[in-house]
Amino acid sequence: MDEPDEPRPAASPAGGFTPLSTEGMVRVRRTPPRDGWRSAVYKLTGGRINPGLSEIEERRRALLTKVRTPLAGPHSVAVGSIKGGIGKTTVASLLGLALAEHRGDRVIAIDANPDAGTLADRLVGEGAVTTTIRDLLDQIDQVRTSTQLSGFTHLAGRLQVLASEQEPELSEMFSKTDYEAVLRVLSRFFECLITDSGTGVVHSAMQGTLDHADSLVIVGAPTVDGASRAARTLDWLTAQGFTDLASDAVVVLSCDRYSPDVDLARIRDHFRSRCRAVVELPPDKHLATGGLIDLDALAPDTRDAALELAAAVAEGFHGRRTRGLASHGFR
Description:
The chain has 331 residues and is α/β, with parallel strands linked by helices. The protein has helices at 22-25, 36-44, 55-67, 88-102, 119-124, 133-138, 146-149, 168-172, 176-186, 204-211, 224-239, 243-247, 264-274, 285-288, 300-314, and strands spanning 75-80, 107-111, 154-156, 159-162, 192-196, 215-220, 250-254, 277-281.
């Protein structure tokens, strides 16, 4: 009886054979374009001719890769400014919607404004809020599961929203201790927590927001008052010992107000020299109504700016965290 054949060792490349690999067996195909003439050519030829992505689509693809930067644990993003009426809540809303839309983990936007904030109005609609952060605080010891927590939040697309208290007396009572209690619960169920803070930098709740922030977004404008207040915010943060947080911040310039007499390039360069990134949010008719924000209703340039903001913030997800949730024992 013949002995069974011994297994033949795989030939080395030197023997004239090319080893098989997944990369070698599967043809690499260009990503189909979605916009412009490139998309038209691709569709008209049934995919036989693929011109590839345009520079704009390539840039968007790169931004999406940054937005999806993995998180090792819960990450707290504070959105703030010492000037009111500059678009802080709009920026917090766009950031939350963009991150929730393009990431696979759980994102929540928190209205921590002790002056009856409007974050929930912009995200879920005025009059649609049935529970607030005060309701959560009143029953916080009973929250054990995400299902129980969902009874206190509202949904805007894939983004969860925790509304602020609207009664002035109760809203003003919101303190650092309250914020920390809420943050401790939310960090058990969400990977990314975005806090829309108030404009009172010395308020107790704002102190709590900064103490537990892993990253920071500062909102300004390309105007004399808007730019100077954003710069003063950075100065104040540095003076209070938040130097690392300030230098790693992302500055958003809300361009709904503009004057040709103001040197936008100089303002942009100033903040780029002081912070990690600068994002310009263009004027948008949909945002100008002050009503419910719908990503699909935004102008293309505004959607791109929101994606750029989300990418800039997400680039800080893998950085070394010297303060924030991790340093305070949050999960």
